[in-house]
Amino acid sequence: MSELTAPVVRPGFSELIGAWPQSRLWLLSVDLYPALAGASLPWSTTAVSIFMVLWMLVVLPTIHWPAFFESLRAPASLLPLAFLALAFAGLFWTEDSWATGIQGVVPVTKLLAVPLLLYHYERSQRGHWVLFAFLASCVLLMGLSWVTYFADWKASSPGALAGVPVRNYIDQSHEFALCLFVMAPLILWFAANGHRAWTLAFAAVMLGFYLDMRFVATSRTAFAYFPVLLILFAVKYLNRRHAIYFLMLAAVVEFGVLLSSPYLRDRIGRTVQDYKVDRDTSAATSNGLRLAYWRVSIRSISEAPVFGHGTGSTQQLFSREAEGKSGEWGNIIRNPHNQTLYVAIQWGVLGCLVLYAMWYFHLQLFRESLFASWIGLVIVVQNFISSLLNSHLFDFHEGWLYVLGVGVAGGIVARAQRPGTG
């Protein structure tokens, strides 16, 4: 009598579908989409949006929900969601239409990615993909910037500058400054370990970023955060004596560049002239418009200081102010060019408490002496200072730079602190 064989049980369709999120290809795509978003950030808003939406779709099936909900106990993960929840709640007391209110929610929705990125990259070993992809993309953009600068080629958009091939000079100088300060500790490490070729290569790239910001295009916001980041680098990576020498050398170099750069002298001269014109005539200069927006914002905040006027209410406020005015004074905006004022108009003191608490706890993520900690620290400090003169957390480019940077670098730091990981 022949021995009976057990029947072969083949997995059903539902079992195969359930196994996909754990497959090697699926897990690869979960790490690949943020890297593609980082590479696209200097070039395209559409590509970043597509890649991050795709990432959220593929990352959700991989999440272990009890562990994710446990991770939300950390303020760095919870506060971005609280900010988004406040934006939705503000729809119920907005003084404008719900359609306009929904437009006010849109800039805040990107914060949803922060806790997901923190959770994912605490478990993934490929967070460096995103950082390297962004850096490589910025190096490529810097090279193209110099080519278009010497070719005197300008984009077709109004107010375009030679040397700014895509987007605008504010975004370009923001990302070049970030890359410059992120690379600085790497040069120290390569030099200390005798890697002369890498030291020279990184120094050349850093010099390219720096000279581009001084001779080609830079934002006036960069004048505010650049010295702060210089001091932060000196304090974190140099002893007291070397830090003093470094900062003195930096001051001498900046003064020398100022004397040799017609563009930089013109940029600073226009800033000073704008201040004089604003003081004497209140003309529609860049500074004059910004100060006018701030005065209007403060008056509006005083009318509803605790909970604000509701989500999306900035558009109605500035539309009223533009009525009957001509020229640039008649432009309808929704952004007062200050992150705190932008938040306070809509959600009052409550919104500001959430905003500043989020910045504080994101800074706390990066207290360790790790390279990823330095990256996150630069991103948060740069965003905070630039948000004093702009609304960079809600702007697309700088906002996504903050979200990706904090999420990925924060996840890498958290992974390094977990027992048994390196």
Structure characterization notes:
This protein is mainly alpha-helical and 422 residues long. The protein has one domain. The protein contains 18 helices and no strands. Helix 5 runs antiparallel to helix 7, helix 9 packs parallel to helix 11 and helix 9 packs antiparallel against helix 17. The longest helix is centred in the C-terminal third of the chain and has 26 residues. The chain is globular, with a radius of gyration of 24 Å. About 3% of the residues have low confidence.
Order of helices and strands: HHHHHHHHHHHHHHHHHH
Q: Got a strand count?
A: 0
Summing up helix and strand content along with how strands pair, one would put the structural category as mainly alpha
Strand percentage:
under 5%
Largest sheet: none
**Number of helical elements:** 18
Distance between the termini: 59 Å
Which shape, going by the Cα principal axes? globular
* Mean pLDDT over the residues: 87
Tell me the helix content.
Answer: over 70%
Low-confidence stretches: 11-17, 277-281
Transmembrane segments: 41-60, 72-92, 98-118, 130-149, 169-190, 197-216, 222-238, 245-264, 341-359, 371-393, 399-416
InterPro entries: O-antigen_ligase-rel_domated, WaaL-like
Subcellular location: Membrane
Domain O-antigen ligase-related: 215-355
